[in-house]
Amino acid sequence: MAGADGDDSLYPIAVLIDELRNEDVQLRLNSIKKLSTIALALGVERTRTELLPFLTDTIYDEDEVLLALAEQLGNFTMLVGGPEYVHCLLPPLESLATVEETVVRDKAVESLRKISQEHSPVDLEVHFEPLVKRLASGDWFTSRTSACGLFSVCYPRVSSTVKAEIRQHFRTLCSDDTPMVRRAAASKLGEFAKVLELDYVKSDIISLFTALASDEQDSVRLLAVEACVSIATLLPQEDLETLVMPTLRQAAEDKSWRVRYMVADKFSELQKAVGPEITKNDLVPAFQNLLKDCEAEVRAAAANKVKEFCENLPEDNREQIIMTHILPCVKELVSDTNQHVKSALASVIMGLSTILGKENTIEHLLPLFLAQLKDECPEVRLNIISNLDCVNEVIGIRQLSQSLLPAIVELAEDAKWRVRLAIIEYMPLLAGQLGVEFFDEKLNTLCMAWLIDHVYAIREAATCNLMKLVEKFGAEWAQNTIVPKVLGMANDPNYLHRMTTLFCINALSEVCGQEITTKQMLPVVVKMASDQVANVRFNVAKSLQKIGPVLDNNALQTQVKPVLEQLKADSDMDVKYFAQEALTVLALA
Amino acid sequence: MVVHGDSSAPLHSRAMSSAATTSPSVDKVDGFSRKSVRKAKQKRSQSSSQFRSQGKPIELTPLPLLKDVPAPEQPELFLKKLQQCCTVFDFMDTLSDLKMKEYKRSTLNELVDYVTVSRGYLTEQAYPEVVKMVSHNIFRTLPPSDSNEFDPEEDEPTLEASWPHLQLVYEFFIRFLESQEFQPSIAKKYIDQKFVLQLLELFDSEDPRERDYLKTVLHRIYGKFLGLRAFIRKQINNIFLRFVYETEHFNGVAELLEILGSIINGFALPLKAEHKQFLVKVLIPLHTVRSLSLFHAQLAYCIVQFLEKDPTLTEPVIRGLLKFWPKTCSQKEVMFLGELEEILDVIEPTQFVKIQEPLFKQISRCVSSPHFQVAERALYYWNNEYIMSLIEENSSVILPIMFANLYRISKEHWNPAIVALVYNVLKAFMEMNSTLFDELTASYKSDRQREKKKEKEREELWKKLEDLELKRGLRSDGIIPT
C-alpha cells in the first residue's frame, strides 16, 4: 500500500467527509455505500486515524445510512491494515450495535461476528470481549440485545477466566427484566450451548433453558423450543430424560398456541435430537395431541410434519405405530374444518404410501386420497395431484384415475386463474404417468381449451405445457394431435387467439423439428404477415426470428427474408422495429 | 414470529363451491378484486381455544337471589356466586349448555347490580374470590388472528364469542374497582404485577368492545394502585417497543396511548428522566409503524401533552419526527404534517428558532411533493396565523430555505390548486420581506447554476476515486471487498 500514498494529498479528508455529510440523504447513502473507495483513497493510516474517529463521532443519522455503514464496516479489515488493526473497527460498530432500529443493530452484530474471527486471541481478550461486556451491561435494552449475539463467537477462543465471565453475563441476560432481551438471549441459547463445554451445558444451560421455557411471556417460551433442538443434540442420551424432557413435555402442552405451534413446527428436528426411544414413548402421544390441537394453526403445522415424522420413526415398529397411533388422527384431519389444515395434510399424505407399502396404501390411504381429491377446497385437490408421483411408485396411478379425472377437470375450470395455472404446471407430469392413450382421450381437450383462456398467464403457460407434452410424446404425436388445432387458430376472429398460434409455434418449432416447422408452421406464419392487426404482424416478425434457426437456408432466403423485408416497410413503428431486429439476428439484412 | 391462518375460509369456500355447481362459467372472478368486495360480509366470531372440546355438559346448582336472603347471609352467598361464575362456557358451540349459560348470565347481572348498590358486602375474603372469578373469565390465550394480513381499516374485527358473559364480567370488575367500599390496600395482594401483565396482554384482542372495557379497567387500576404505576408504564413500554421493532402487530395500541395521554397529563414537573426517555425512545419511534393511521390521533395527543408540560422537549421531538419522516407513504406524510402543525400551535418562539432550519427544509420538500395532498397539507401552514407570525419573525432564515422550491413549483407543479396556493405563499413572503425576496429572485438563476456546477464537481470527484479504486484493485488484487 505504501506506493499509493502519493495520491492521498489529492483527496483531503474534508472533501470526503463533506460527502458523508451531504444534506441529501440519498447522496449521503451513496457515499456511505462507497466508503471502501474513500478508505482506499485515504490509505490505511488515515482511515484509522481520521475516517474511523469521524464515523464513530457522527453516528446519528437515518437508519438507512447506518445500515449501510454497519454492513461496510464488516468488510473493512484490509482497509484498516489487516487483522493486526481490525480492532479499530470496534468503536463505530459498538455504537451501531446500540441503536434502536433492529435491522441496523442486527447488521452491526453480524459485522462484529464477522470481524471477531479476524481478531487474534489476544486482541479478542483485550479489545473484543470488553466490548461485549459493555454491551451486556448497557442501560438501554438495545445494547444488551446485541450482546446476546456476540457471546458464542468469542467464547471458544478466550481464557477460562474470561469464559467464566462470559457465562455469567449470558446468565444475567437470560433473566433480564425486559422481554426483548430475554427473547434475544433465548434465541441465542442453542448457539451458545454449542460452544460450551459439556459440563457447563449441563450445569448452566439447562437451568437457563428451563427458566426461559417457563417465562411469563409466550414469545420467550417459544424461542426456548428452538433452543431445545440444539441442546438435546449436545447431551448424551441418558441425560435427556431428566434434563430436557420435562421442559419439552410442558412446551407441547403449553397454554399458548404459539408455543405449541413452535413445537409442531420443529417436530422433526426434535425427533431427531431426542432419538428413537424417547420418540416412541413421548413424542408419539405428543404428536397425536398436536394433530388434534384445538387451534387450526397448530394442527396445520403438525399435519405438515406427518410424513417426516413417520419416516423417521424407528423401523422396527414403525408400521405398527403409524397404523395404530398416527393414521387415526390423519383420518380425522382429512375432514378437518379448516382448509389450511387439510391442504397441509394433502401436501404430505401421499408420502405415507412409500412408508406403508402397497397393501396398506390400497386399504387405508387410498380412501383418504380419494376423499381429498373431492375436497371442496381447490388447494387440497391440487396438493394431492401435485404429489401423485409418490403413489405412482407404490400402487400405480390407475387406481386413482377414475377419481383423478373429475378432479383435474374441475381444477382446470376453476374460477381462480392461479388454480388453473397450478394444474397446468402438473400436466406434463400427469401425462407421463397416465400415458398417451388416457391423455388423448381425456385431457387433450383441456390442454387446448387453456390456449383460449381469457387470462394471458394461462395462455402462456398452456403454450409452454404443449412444448413439454411434445417432449414427452414425440413429434409424430404432435403432428397428429396438436399442430392442426394450433394452426387452425390462425384463422380465429379474435386476434389474441391468432397471436396464441404464433406463441405456440415459437414454443413448438424446436421440439417438432425442421420438417414440421418448414412444411406446416412456416406457411401459416407467412400468411399471418398480412394480418390487419399490427400486434399480430410484429409477432410474426418475432416468431420468424425465433424459428429461423430451425429452418434451412433455402427456406430462410426464399420465404422468411421476403416477408421480413415486407414487414420492414410496414406503416407501424413496432412492426418495422421487430422486422429489422429479426433480419439482423438471422443475418438476412 | 407471526403465525396466521384463515379459519373463516370454510364458510367462504362453501359459498364458492355452491356457486361453482350452479353456474361454473358465470362466476369467474379473479383474485385481484378488493378484499372488501371479495369477502362475504359476515360477522365472524372467535373464542379462546382453551375452553373448547370439554365434551361434558356443565351443571351448576341454582342459588337463591341475593335479595331474597337475610343481610347477614349475603356475603356468604356472594362468595358462592362468585365461585359459580368461575365456570367458563364454550360459546363456539352455540347449542351446548344453553340453560347454564343463561343462568350464569343472570347471576353475573345480579352481581353487577349487587356491587353497585349494596353496602358492607366487601369482606376481606371477597377480594381473592372476585379477582379469581375475573381472572378465570378474562385471562385466556387469544386465538390466532383470523386473516393473514388483518387490516383494521378494511377488515371486520373478529368478535369475541363469549361476549355475553365477558361483558358482564368486565362490567362487574369495573363496578367493583369503583365501589366506595373498595380498598386498594387489601386488593393489592391479589391485583399484582402478574395480574396486570395478563391484563395488558389482552389489549391485543381483536374485539374493540373488549379493548374499550380493558381501557377503563387499566385506567382504574393505574389510578388506585400507586405501587403498580411504574410497573404498568414499563410494561406498556415493552409492548410498544416490541410492536415497533419486532412484530408491528398489536391491536390495542390506540387504547394504551389513550390511557397514557391522561397519565402524561398528570406527570409532575420537572419531568423525570424516565418520562423523557419514554417520549424520545418509544413514542417517537411509534411513528415508524406501518399502521400509524390507527393510533395517530392518540399518539399526537400524547406528544403535544409532553410539549405542553415541558417546551424544552420540542427540539428532540421535532428532530425525531424529521428523522423518521416518511419517504414513500404519502398518507403518513400528511399525518406527520398534521401532527407538526399541532406541535407548532403550541411551540414557544425560542424553541422555534432552534429547529426552524431543519424543519423548513423538510416543509420545503413537502411543498414541492408531486403528491398534491402532501403539498396542499404543507401549504395550509400559511393559513395558520400563529405559524405565520413565527415565519414572519424569522423570514430572513426561512425565506431563503423555501424560496427555490416555491419558485420552481410555481412554474412546474401539475396541479393548478397547488400552483395557486404557492402563489399566495410567495405573495406573503414578498410582503414580509420584499428586499430579501427581490434578492432571491435575482439570484435564482445563478444559484441554480452554482448548484449544477457543484453537482458536476461531485461527480468528477467520485469518478476520480473510482479510477483510483480500479487502479489499486488491479495492483493489490483482492484488497477491495466485494
Automatic annotation (TrEMBL), chain A:
HEAT repeats lie at residues 12-50, 89-127, 166-204, 205-243, 244-282, 283-320, 326-364, 365-403, 404-442, 482-520, 521-559, 560-589. It comes from Parambassis ranga (Indian glassy fish). Belongs to the phosphatase 2A regulatory subunit A family. One of its GO terms (cellular component) is cytosol. GO terms for molecular function: protein phosphatase regulator activity. Residues 276-357 form the Phosphatase PP2A regulatory subunit A/Splicing factor 3B subunit 1-like HEAT repeat domain. Keywords: Repeat. InterPro entries: 2AA_helical, ARM-like, ARM-type_fold, HEAT, HEAT_type_2, PP2A/SF3B1-like_HEAT, PP2A_Regulatory_Subunit_A. Residues 89-270 form the Phosphatase 2A Regulatory Subunit A helical domain. It comes from the Eukaryota. Transmembrane segments: none annotated. This is Serine/threonine-protein phosphatase 2A 65 kDa regulatory subunit A beta isoform.
TrEMBL record, chain B:
GO terms for biological process: signal transduction. One of its GO terms (cellular component) is cytosol. Gene3D superfamilies: Leucine-rich Repeat Variant. Transmembrane segments: none annotated. Residues 1-54 are annotated as: Disordered. Residues 45-54 have a biased composition (Low complexity). It holds the Pfam family B56. Residues 15-25 have a biased composition (Polar residues). Residues 35-44 have a biased composition (Basic residues). GO terms for molecular function: protein phosphatase activator activity. Belongs to the phosphatase 2A regulatory subunit B56 family. This is Serine/threonine protein phosphatase 2A regulatory subunit. It comes from Parambassis ranga.
